[in-house]
Design brief:
about 130 residues; 11 strands; elongated
Length: about 130
């Protein structure tokens, strides 16, 4: 299985910056995508940014302010958030899709396959 641990959230004033970190653990053979989502109170979860070997994509609302990066060797993805606005307030979730090892209970054996994992979320509050 794949586990994710996020860190870096907190309270920041408008215009400030934060850097989120997400570290993956488990037996991972290949990383396909690493993404950040967020969910504001009363709203649906939305994609903020994603990174693959082919490039990066951002939501229009964060384009030019947020930067996603990753260290594949460390199985870590980052989200640098600059010029934060009150509307960026949300719980931020890390998501990865990988080829990794998992335990198949039915066959009582470890297998390799396409796995997806979510982090527990880290709260970002932008307020004066």
């Amino acid at each position: 299985q794949v586990q994710l641990v996020e860190s870096g959230g907190g309270l920041v004033q408008p215009g400030g910056s934060l850097r989120l970190t997400c570290i993956a653990s488990g037996t991972i053979y290949n990383i396909y995508t690493m993404s950040w989502y967020r969910q504001a109170p009363g709203k649906e979860r939305e994609l903020v940014a994603t990174i693959t070997s082919g490039g990066k994509k951002y939501a229009d609302s964060v384009q030019g302010r947020f930067t996603i990066s990753r260290d594949t060797a460390k199985k870590t993805v980052y989200l640098q958030m600059n010029n934060l606005k009150p509307e960026d307030t949300a719980v931020y979730y890390c998501n990865v899709e990988v080829q990794g090892s998992y335990y198949d209970d039915y066959d009582a054996a470890f297998k390799a396959g396409h796995l997806e994992a979510w982090g527990q979320g880290t709260l970002v509050t932008v307020s004066s």
